[in-house]
Amino acid sequence: AQTVFPATRQAMMSSLASKPLLFSPGTAIRYTQTNYVVLTALLEAHYGKPYPQIVQQRIFEKLKMKHTWLGLAALPEKRVAKAYSGSNGQLKKLDDALWPAYGYGHTGLHSTVEDLTLFMQAMSRGELVGKASLQGFWQPQHLANGERIWPATGWDLGESGSYSEVGHDGGTHVRLRILFNGTLDGDVYTIAYLTNGSARNVWSGTLVDSVMARIAPEKFPAEAAAESLRAFAFATPKDDTATAAEVRSV
């Protein structure tokens, strides 16, 4: 069944106004989307125009992202790939949630891998936000007790050897990642990975780790080792000897 959302942003805010906090600010973290609704409202107040128009003018048109849309209304139906999830090794079709327009700050984006690559490359080059600002944002965040948490101003943050990695995912279907060694002026990789699902429900982070292992195994040895282990685990009997030798060489 489709999730029913409050009809307007004000209705959503009103429905939350009397709800108690789940925890004191700075003491825990939960994955949610309400902060992006607030950010969208702030942007609309600042620019005096709807969020889709802001994004269209300041990002899509600027970067020549000609195959990217917010929401379903303007989406060319014949261009859309069907999404699936895996269940007991079988594919099950997923229906697109009917997100309200006030939620477009966190969802409802439809794009191609080429357009997403344009966006990620522009980010890493400092064309949308300055490099110094980005590297200030992309710093480890901690709770009041000192525990490190994974997000950094809306981006997933991690490391792979000497490389920092930032990005975000859409579960088993999409993963965007920027990897840089030290600074954004050094060695930088941008990865955009899209899939419409798999029978095994493979997590998108695993798929991008596999890409890293393929493109630069000497720079990402942990991912290369994990890829070899996966190859060994899924090998047919006739491949075992060769794959075992490969695993030993990592």
From TrEMBL:
Residues 10-199 form the Beta-lactamase-related domain. The keyword Hydrolase applies. One of its GO terms (molecular function) is hydrolase activity. Keywords: Hydrolase. This is Beta-lactamase-related domain-containing protein. It comes from marine sediment metagenome.
